[in-house]
TrEMBL record:
It comes from Humibacillus xanthopallidus. The keyword Transport does not apply. GO terms for molecular function: CoA-transferase activity. The keyword Protein biosynthesis does not apply. This is 3-oxoacid CoA-transferase subunit A. Keywords: Transferase. Pfam families: CoA_trans. SMART domains: CoA_trans. InterPro entries: CoA_trans_fam_I, NagB/RpiA_transferase-like.
């Protein structure tokens, strides 16, 4: 039951070139930066990453993207990474853009044994009808486009509505970060840093959690556990230096007023 590993390289053992990874985080909030760095240092490449976004140019998944280690992304929001945009538009990266709520539910479904589900999100758009560019050719034409998806009408709140079928997502490995974790893999996330982390953990066959604080079994209040240890196979305790290193995507400040300066 003791799932603790002693090093980041030991934590990622078994991840090989070409594998799929579900990676927690939202922007740079709650990303498993230590595990991502370990994958980068190991030289792993040709990866498919499922994550809300792809970090920024020099942090998070952005460091893997920068060195051409990612061949395909399944994402919802990618606006903070200029290199992501460049690779996508130049045909160097395949991208499956997915509505944010749909991405969350596809991951949850994958972890819950649900093969697919119907949703209204995307009906009447290229999400359902197909033709969304997944990969561009070097000349700017579409090399790979999304296929059309099955739709079906249902009686919904007294009216007939069209729904689109979305398939669940499962991955080879999941990488997540938690504020606390015990040796059995039970995890607690800090406020908004929970975001996609539990879902990415659920969807993976093998999940690795880096934890800022390791506690002993029984120390976590069962009612406060956000993700039970059944979804986690390895726990990597972070050092104090690793735990405190967190970045902000975009820092916005306003000029101090005269009153503030006098105070």
């Amino acid at each position: 039951m003791d799932k603790v590993v002693s090093s980041s390289q030991g934590a990622i053992a078994g991840i090989t070139d070409g594998m799929s990874l579900s990676v927690g985080g939202f922007g740079l909030c709650g990303i498993p930066s230590v595990l991502i760095t370990a994958i980068h240092d190991a030289g792993l490449t040709d990866l498919e990453a499922v994550s809300n976004n792809c970090g920024v140019d020099d942090w998070g998944l952005g460091i893997l993207l920068r060195d051409k280690r990612i061949r395909r992304m399944v994402s919802s929001y990618v606006g903070e990474n200029k290199e992501f945009e460049r690779q996508y538009l130049h045909g160097e990266l395949e991208v499956e853009l997915t509505p944010q709520g749909t991405l969350a539910e596809r991951l949850r479904a994958g972890g819950s044994g649900i093969a697919a589900f119907f949703t209204m999100t995307g009906v009447g758009t290229q999400i359902a009808e197909g033709g969304l560019p997944w990969r561009y050719a070097a000349d700017g034409t579409i090399a790979i486009a999304s296929p059309p998806k099955q739709t079906q009408d249902f009686d919904w709140m007294g009216e007939t509505r069209t729904f689109v079928l979305e398939q669940a997502i499962t991955t080879d490995f999941g990488l997540v970060r938690a504020a606390k974790g015990d040796r059995h893999g039970n995890l607690v996330f800090h406020e908004s840093a929970r975001n996609f982390n539990p879902l990415c953990a659920m969807a993976a066959r093998t999940t690795i959690a880096e934890v800022e604080q390791l506690v002993e079994p029984g120390e976590l209040d069962p009612d406060q556990i956000h993700l039970p240890g059944i979804f986690v196979q390895r726990v990597l305790p972070l050092t104090a230096e690793q735990a405190v290193e967190k970045r902000i995507e975009r820092r916005t400040v306003r000029p101090r007023t005269t009153t503030e300066q006098e105070a």
